[in-house]
Amino acid sequence: YNMFNRKKLEKEYLSLFEKEKLGTTIWSPLSSGFLTGKYLSGEPEGARTSLKNYKFIKDHFESDEFKDNYKKVDKLNKLSKDAGLPLVNMAIGWCLKNENVSSVILGASNLDQLKQNLETHKYLNILDDSLMKNIDLIRKDFPILDAKVNGHNLIYLDNADTSLTPNCVIDSISDYYKNLNSNIHRGVHFLSQQATELYEGA
C-alpha cells in the first residue's frame, strides 16, 4: 500500500475494516524506493534496481505505464519541501494516516535509511487535512471525477464516444501549446522539429 497502489486497501478490503473491525499491516510504503525521489535523476548508485534479482522493479520503473509517476513524484517532492518534511517521511506518514493501517513494514536497506524512516512519527502533525488533500490532488489521474452531482461523486459511464482525459495528457497538451505550438511533419524550423520528435516518440 502506497500513494501509487491504493485500490485493494481503500476499496476491496473496506468491508473487512468496517464489518469485521480488522486492521492491516502494509508493505512497500515507498513503492520500492520510488517515493523517496531518488530515481528522479536516474538510477542511483547501489540502488536495488541495479541488482539482477530486482530487474523486475527496474523494468516496472521504465515501463510506459509508469512514466507519469515521475512527474507525480517530482510534484510530491516539491510539496514535501514546501510543507517542511522529507518526501520519504511524507510518503510513510501518508500511509500511517489511514485509520485502517495498523502497522507499516519498512524496506530500509541500511541503517541510515532505517533511522530516517523511523523519524516519520515526528512529522505526523504536519500531515494535516490540507496537506493530505494536496497529496491526493497530485496523484489523481482524472480530475473530472472530483465533481459532485446532487451532493454525490460523479459517476462517469464511458461509451467510447467521449473518453475521460487523464492528467498526463492534459499536462502534455498544455505543455505543447505553451512551449511548442507548431505543426508536425510540415516545417524545418526548431519548434516544428521538436514537436515532430515528441509526436513520433509518443
Draw up the topology in text.
Blueprint: H1 7-12, H2 14-19, E1 24-27, H3 55-61, H4 68-83, H5 87-96, E2 101-105, H6 111-118, H7 129-139, E3 148-149, E4 152-153, H8 167-179, H9 190-201
Parallel strand pairs: 1-2
Antiparallel strand pairs: 3-4
Care to describe what's here?
With 202 residues, the protein is mainly α. It is built from nine helices and four strands. It has helices at residues 7-12, 14-19, 55-61, 68-83, 87-96, 111-118, 129-139, 167-179, 190-201, and strands at 24-27, 101-105, 148-149, 152-153. Strands 1-2 form a two-stranded parallel ribbon. Strands 3-4 form a two-stranded antiparallel sheet. A hairpin with a 2-residue loop joins strand 3 (148-149) and strand 4 (152-153). Helix 4 (68-83) packs antiparallel against helix 7 (129-139). 17% of the residues are buried.
Descriptors:
single chain; 202 residues; mainly alpha; two-stranded antiparallel sheet; 6% strand; globular
Strand content: 5-15%
How would a crystallographer describe the biggest sheet?
2 strands, parallel
Number of helices: 9
For the secondary structure, the number of strands is 4
Kindly state the percentage of residues in helix. 40-55%
Q: Which structural class should the secondary elements be placed in?
A: mainly alpha
The low-pLDDT segments are none
Overall pLDDT, averaged?
A: 86
Label the overall shape: globular
- Provide the succession of SSEs: HHEHHHEHHEEHH
Cα distance, first to last residue? 30 Å
Widest beta sheet: strand line-up: 1-2
Radius of gyration: 20 Å
